[in-house]
Design brief:
four-stranded antiparallel sheet; WD40/YVTN_repeat-like_dom_sf; 6-blade_b-propeller_TolB-like; 576 residues; five-stranded mixed sheet; mainly beta; 40 strands
């Protein structure tokens, strides 16, 4: 049974079908005339407004109008109409949750899913799985998960389905669950606990359809692991076949070839990191010193190659790169279909491996240890050039350094972004001749950079999250987590003890020394009510946003808020 939030239960309503919303051509014609734009929006059939189709172009248009004319009546009217359609006031700060454990961009690059653990020294708590819109740098949806999401040091604990309609995470230590990232239901479509109580996050690979996952476990078969359903409620299975619940997972029953067992010096093989190929037919990954490709559904070993070091797979599943450690470290690029090298190994200083795509061609970046720069290769292992970047030591080379992502490819593959050892971000043009395009400071403790759609860079630390324009450096969103109430820092903190009912659950930090609160649920008559320090009103737009369909964010400065400075005024406002 789906579990809905109180807000969703209270705002469910029947909507009558309408006509058509003004096309982008009509809106463009009114771009330079705020009065004409206002008239057009006043006459529009807002019942026919479809957020996925109509909101992004309208939001872009109004942003341009604001830059030319400031916030106009057209902005305020559009905000009113969206609120009438159920837009909800939201902020990103949860009452639970600790450090960022993992993160992943959606396949379209327009959304970011982040997993956070419990608070430090907390044994029995929650941590959120949150979904962010890159274009606005704002939270649009979230789910509080028991014992937190992800796992310290582990990567690949957040994965998206190929079409972006589902997102999976490892949570509650042993479980893997899948959610609708833009859905109202708080519980997952389904979850699987099959790792026999292993005291760490499950190693898993989400199927492209988002309905099942390969999960590493000791199965009693030579190829370890199983394929468990993630859309049929809870699945529980252990090697002793006790307390089983839900549909039984499918085991990989094909035996290993004798040659493979002789090479492994073992009668079994399991993955340490693994991914499900985009065509749905293979598992690609490595375990220990070996890389392998395994055919589904029976688990027949397609190939096995000794790599010694970790393996990185190209986004198109056509190539794999392995960097063997040692005094003379060797980089080898493999054909992912056969496991055979595409060329001779080359000497390469040790570092972390990062694939990207430039059109149909894969490209590889090696972020070298200890400030040694970045080497760029073509998809067959041919060296293109060396970038003299003073690279960060936090380069994510080790298995337990999963939060560290020092390099990000632009989706088109023409640029790359790299974190440096002195706390900067460098953006490089990577055409025939590389060139430094921009350099800027990063938040202290930044561990990862991701490059999404629309030229948006995401900078992530243990408790910091920043969204910026990749080419101008313009700030889109900036958040610091982990602040706590301190009565000596803000007079508003004294009000926290008086917070009542719907306000007690959703108080949040605005700065290091001031706090705010909105209602939970934020619905009429409290839909726009905010308790905030009068001296901090300018900061509300950087934290709050109206969210539409839990998919899009809308600036609060384009409408109005009912801002009060204390609890008693809020109480009087609700009772009037």
């Amino acid at each position: 049974m789906p579990v809905l939030s109180a807000e969703e239960v209270l705002t469910i309503r029947r909507r009558e079908p309408g006509g058509s919303f003004p096309a982008s051509v009509a809106l463009e014609a009114a771009r330079h005339d705020p009065e004409a734009l206002l008239a057009l929006l006043e006459e529009a059939d807002w019942q026919a407004f479809e957020p996925e189709r109509d909101l992004p172009p309208l939001r872009d248009l109004l942003a341009d109008v604001e830059a030319r004319h400031g916030v106009t009546d057209a902005h305020r009217l559009a905000t009113d109409r969206l609120r009438e359609r159920g837009a909800r006031l939201r902020h990103p700060y949860t009452t639970s949750g600790g450090d960022f454990h993992d993160y992943a961009l959606s396949p379209c690059g327009r959304y970011l899913a982040t997993a956070r653990g419990m608070r430090e020294n907390e044994y029995d708590g929650d941590g959120p799985l949150q979904v962010w819109e890159l274009a606005t740098g704002r939270l649009v949806n979230g789910f509080d998960l028991r014992y937190g999401a992800g796992w310290p040091g582990y990567r690949d604990t957040v994965q998206w389905a190929a079409d972006g309609t589902r997102v999976a995470t490892a949570y509650c230590t042993n479980n893997v669950g899948v959610w609708n990232p833009f859905g109202a239901r708080l519980n997952p479509f389904g979850s699987a606990d099959v790792t026999d109580g292993h005291d760490a996050a499950a190693t898993f690979a989400l199927a492209p359809d988002g309905r099942r996952a390969y999960i590493m476990m000791h199965s009693g078969h030579e190829v370890m692991g199983c394929v468990a359903a993630l859309d049929q409620g809870d699945v529980f299975y252990n090697d002793y076949r006790l307390h089983n619940k839900g549909p039984e997972p499918g085991m990989l029953t094909a035996p290993l070839p004798e040659e493979a067992k002789e090479r492994l010096k073992d009668d079994g093989f399991g993955f340490r990191r693994v991914r499900w190929s985009r065509d749905g037919g293979r598992l690609l990954g490595h375990g220990g010193a070996w890389a392998a490709a395994i055919d589904l559904p029976d688990g027949r070993l397609r190939w096995l190659t000794l790599t010694v070091g970790d393996v990185a797979w190209s986004p198109d599943d056509r190539r794999a790169a392995a960097l063997r450690p040692g005094r003379s470290a060797l980089l080898t690029v493999l054909d992912a279909d056969t496991g055979q090298p595409t060329g001779d190994p080359v000497i390469q200083a040790e570092g972390s491996l990062h694939w990207g795509m430039r059109g149909a061609e894969a490209r590889l970046a090696v972020v070298v240890d200890d400030g040694g720069g970045v080497d760029v290769y073509n998809e067959n292992g041919g060296h293109r050039y060396h970038l003299p970047i003073a690279t960060t030591r936090r380069n994510g080379k080790g298995f337990f350094d999963g939060q560290e992502r020092p390099w990000a490819w632009e989706p088109a593959g023409e640029f790359g972004a790299c974190l440096t050892g002195d706390g900067r971000l460098e953006v490089w043009f990577l055409g025939d001749e590389p060139a430094l395009a921009r350099s800027s400071e990063t938040p202290e403790g930044t561990k990862a950079v991701l490059w999404g759609a629309g030229g948006v860079l995401v900078l992530i630390g243990e408790r910091t999250l920043r969204f910026t324009d990749a080419f101008t450096g313009a700030l889109i969103g900036d958040f610091v987590f982990g602040r706590y109430f301190d009565g000596e820092r803000s007079s508003l903190d004294e009000e926290f003890a008086k917070l009542f009912g719907m306000f007690h659950a959703d108080a949040f930090p605005l700065t290091d020394s001031s706090w705010c609160a909105i209602a939970d649920p934020a619905i009429e008559p409290a839909s726009a009510l905010v308790i905030a320090d009068e001296n901090q009103l300018d900061g509300l737009d950087g934290v709050l946003a109206w969210t539409i369909d839990r998919r899009f964010a809308w600036p609060v400065r384009w409408g109005w808020l009912d801002v009060v400075s204390d609890v008693e005024t809020a109480r009087a406002f609700l009772c009037r």
